[in-house]
Amino acid sequence: CIKANAKSCGECIQAGPNCGWCKKTDFLQEGEPTSARCDDLAALKTKGCPPEDIENPRGSKRLLENREVTNRKIGAAEKLDPQDITQIQPQKLLLKLRVGEPQTFSLKFKRAEDYPIDLYYLMDLSYSMKDDLENVKSLGTALMLEMEKITSDFRIGFGSFVEKTVMPYISTTPAKLRNPCTGDQNCTSPFSYKNVLSLTSEGNKFNELVGKQHISGNLDSPEGGFDAIMQVAVCGEQIGWRNVTRLLVFSTDAGFHFAGDGKLGGIVLPNDGKCHLENNMYTMSHYYDYPSIAHLVQKLSENNIQTIFAVTEEFQAVYKELKNLIPKSAVGTLSSNSSNVIQLIIDAYNSLSSEVILENTKLPKGVTISYKSFCKNGVNDTQEDGRKCSNISIGDEVKFEINITANECPKKGQNETIKIKPLGFTEEVEINLEFVCECQCQSEGEPNSPACHEGNGTFECGACRCNEGRIGRLCECSTDEVNSEDMDAYCRRENSTEICSNNGECICGQCVCKKRENTNEVYSGKYCECDNFNCDRSNGLICGGNGICKCRVCECFPNFTGSACDCSLDTTPCMASNGQICNGRGTCECGTCNCTDPKFQGPACETCQTCLGVCAEHKDCIQCRAFDKGEKKETCSQECMYFNMTRVESRDKLPQPGQPDPLSHCKEKDIDDCWFYFTYSVNSNGEASVHVVETPECPSGPDIIPIVAGVVAGIVLIGLALLLIWKLLMIIHDRREFAKFEKEKMNAKWDTVS
């Protein structure tokens, strides 16, 4: 928004959908240009613009016609005129578009059952189609019977074509012009296109008139069918087209001529796409070239005609390629004698009616459109495929979500109209576009306002829009004065040679500060000497993230101070576990404890490596005052009167945790090895309070007799155990010696001496 450099509210809202304009008169700081009124909505609120002073007109949509789609079944007693049947909803709406802001609406389409159909049969009557003509002569009544299964309102027409009536497409000799066929064949004179029967509901009349037709002939293989298709499309009155489903069946066994081929016959004028039927005959085939494929696509689409190409197997590939170029067209394979033409038409019609394709008219400059389809069985698509739904049956309902966006305002600001319709159908949605290019406050502007330097501009939306030839924030200068050196003197600070501190330009003797690439960084001040990005930083953030930079000085948020707003006044980080700030042994500065007692350190001055604990520190004084003994017994009255002491009967009566003042529970030994219990606390006034249990817990002396008896008994038992072990070892030793003796006795040998 800032980069748009908008000079007015209208220019601002065209910069983007999130841009707003502050019309508050005193919104701008000194030195800020008028374009600074244009910014993101959130940024304007941050800068102090009240929400009611922010101009931010939005786009909108309004339904003008919204008739429900028709629910009607074949055979119903209710007979409706085609114009009373609705297949598309809504029918008309108004969109107000703001640049960059899309407007979305839903379009519903339902193919009505028993919808009227007009079918025009256009047949190639060159000689090769002779046997086909015989089968087509009875087509009228037979096709009527089949189409009654689809619709109760069906009309049929017939036309024929051969070729342009000039060389080299036909022979122009008098005899060949009378009968172009050879031998004894009786053929009619060649012609380009003939409307034999306008659309009618009388099938017998179709049979009668087609039965009177005769084959003709030409010289080359491609036929002049494109001339005929063009005339059928644009000659609506002569053909008798109604605003219903329009089908054109194109039957041939040959290829086609297209734009440029007319040069062979000396025809160079492009086809004009207009109707030239006189007495139901196309009279300008010798004057205008064949139409191009693109020209045909345009005219068929404009007239909502769906084309069915009934061609022989030989030319299937050619016409399938043509089908890909012509929306809402189908190709069927025609038997050699056209005997299957009725089934071909039915199949092609079912194929065409199973697909809905939306198209829109030419969009105004700067307007874009996108589609999203919600088709049968949950199939959704976007982009180009979002325009269509396939595999739908008659009676099925499909929806489309359509987004229309304006990317710029029209130069003249005029309204536009676009139309969306399903290909092959006459119904359409008319969309009126109005562009939001100005703000409401601009219509309330005061021309030649005194606020704009003696009426040299229009005061609108909180700012001056200068008349031609006037410039300046208040239109106070003419363009002739802009470069005057006298004006530059007003843009220099005292004792300085820099114009606008080199941060702006001097216009009409006033500094207009330049803009930075980062739109959040702003120069301001009478001489552009101030900015909001050159303040002290902390942790890499301007003003530590805890203040606002104004004219290179930090204005800190509450509870912060310092040149970079990096000093917190919050004492919570300094709170010690006993509830005192810095444990009562320091001061809290910028959220950190500065310990005044050098023995203490740590975040809350609670750590003392050389100190006794609270209990050990005070036990001697409590012992002397409570029990009149201990190391400080002699000096108790001088050293131990700094606390108030209360005696309690038992440990249960001692103060418990949860009271407002910090509390320490202690258990210490006196000089008699007795345990005594007390609590020590300091209130908010710094007064110490001690509660002590009046009776120490002294351990009882040992019972000597049981101890002596136990020792003697132990000695006796150990002696007996040792004797038993010795005796057992001796028995084992004796038994081993005796066994050894017995063994040696058995093995002894005695010598006899004689």
Automatic annotation (TrEMBL):
<feature type="disulfide bond">
    <location>
        <begin position="506"/>
        <end position="511"/>
    </location>
</feature>
<dbReference type="GO" id="GO:0032587">
    <property type="term" value="C:ruffle membrane"/>
</dbReference>
<dbReference type="GO" id="GO:0046872">
    <property type="term" value="F:metal ion binding"/>
</dbReference>
<feature type="disulfide bond">
    <location>
        <begin position="22"/>
        <end position="38"/>
    </location>
</feature>
<feature type="transmembrane region" description="Helical">
    <location>
        <begin position="704"/>
        <end position="726"/>
    </location>
</feature>
<feature type="disulfide bond">
    <location>
        <begin position="590"/>
        <end position="636"/>
    </location>
</feature>
<feature type="disulfide bond">
    <location>
        <begin position="513"/>
        <end position="528"/>
    </location>
</feature>
<feature type="disulfide bond">
    <location>
        <begin position="181"/>
        <end position="187"/>
    </location>
</feature>
<dbReference type="InterPro" id="IPR016201">
    <property type="entry name" value="PSI"/>
</dbReference>
<keyword id="KW-0517">Myogenesis</keyword>
<dbReference type="InterPro" id="IPR036349">
    <property type="entry name" value="Integrin_bsu_tail_dom_sf"/>
</dbReference>
<keyword id="KW-1003">Cell membrane</keyword>
<dbReference type="Pfam" id="PF00362">
    <property type="entry name" value="Integrin_beta"/>
</dbReference>
<keyword id="KW-0677">Repeat</keyword>
<keyword id="KW-0401">Integrin</keyword>
<keyword id="KW-0479">Metal-binding</keyword>
<feature type="disulfide bond">
    <location>
        <begin position="530"/>
        <end position="535"/>
    </location>
</feature>
<dbReference type="InterPro" id="IPR014836">
    <property type="entry name" value="Integrin_bsu_cyt_dom"/>
</dbReference>
<feature type="disulfide bond">
    <location>
        <begin position="12"/>
        <end position="49"/>
    </location>
</feature>
<dbReference type="GO" id="GO:0001968">
    <property type="term" value="F:fibronectin binding"/>
</dbReference>
<keyword id="KW-0597">Phosphoprotein</keyword>
<feature type="disulfide bond">
    <location>
        <begin position="452"/>
        <end position="464"/>
    </location>
</feature>
<keyword id="KW-0325">Glycoprotein</keyword>
<dbReference type="GO" id="GO:0030027">
    <property type="term" value="C:lamellipodium"/>
</dbReference>
<feature type="disulfide bond">
    <location>
        <begin position="409"/>
        <end position="666"/>
    </location>
</feature>
<dbReference type="Pfam" id="PF07965">
    <property type="entry name" value="Integrin_B_tail"/>
</dbReference>
<dbReference type="GO" id="GO:0009986">
    <property type="term" value="C:cell surface"/>
</dbReference>
<dbReference type="InterPro" id="IPR040622">
    <property type="entry name" value="EGF_integrin_1"/>
</dbReference>
<feature type="disulfide bond">
    <location>
        <begin position="640"/>
        <end position="674"/>
    </location>
</feature>
<keyword id="KW-0675">Receptor</keyword>
<dbReference type="GO" id="GO:0019960">
    <property type="term" value="F:C-X3-C chemokine binding"/>
</dbReference>
<feature type="disulfide bond">
    <location>
        <begin position="461"/>
        <end position="500"/>
    </location>
</feature>
<dbReference type="GO" id="GO:0045202">
    <property type="term" value="C:synapse"/>
</dbReference>
<dbReference type="GO" id="GO:0005925">
    <property type="term" value="C:focal adhesion"/>
</dbReference>
<keyword id="KW-0106">Calcium</keyword>
<dbReference type="Pfam" id="PF23105">
    <property type="entry name" value="EGF_integrin"/>
</dbReference>
<dbReference type="GO" id="GO:0007517">
    <property type="term" value="P:muscle organ development"/>
</dbReference>
<dbReference type="GO" id="GO:0005178">
    <property type="term" value="F:integrin binding"/>
</dbReference>
<dbReference type="InterPro" id="IPR012896">
    <property type="entry name" value="Integrin_bsu_tail"/>
</dbReference>
<feature type="disulfide bond">
    <location>
        <begin position="588"/>
        <end position="593"/>
    </location>
</feature>
<feature type="disulfide bond">
    <location>
        <begin position="9"/>
        <end position="19"/>
    </location>
</feature>
<feature type="disulfide bond">
    <location>
        <begin position="477"/>
        <end position="491"/>
    </location>
</feature>
